[in-house]
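Researcher: Quick test of sequence recovery. Tokens follow.
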């Protein structure tokens, strides 16, 4: 089984969302940016991700759970290090 690497993703940060695309299949993970300080303390800087349809539903040799976790980790890093 292959493991995703950060270079497998493209990250686009907007004021309201972080969009993370997994290049091998084109699947987009979209995370809403939280604004309320209390929500950020309780849940972190992002909402749970919304997953869109991929160009292909097949992740090939990648674990979907591992890809989703890495997409979220990269999105959090993108908003906490800028």
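Model:
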């Amino acid at each position: 089984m292959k493991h995703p690497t950060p270079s497998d993703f493209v990250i686009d940060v907007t004021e309201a969302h972080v969009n993370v695309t997994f290049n091998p299949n084109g699947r987009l993970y979209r995370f809403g940016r939280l604004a309320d300080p209390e929500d950020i303390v309780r849940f972190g800087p992002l909402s749970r991700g919304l997953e869109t349809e991929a160009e292909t539903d097949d992740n090939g040799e990648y674990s979907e759970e591992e890809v989703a976790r890495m997409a979220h980790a990269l999105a959090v890093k993108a908003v906490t290090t800028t």
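The longest strand covers residues 17-22.
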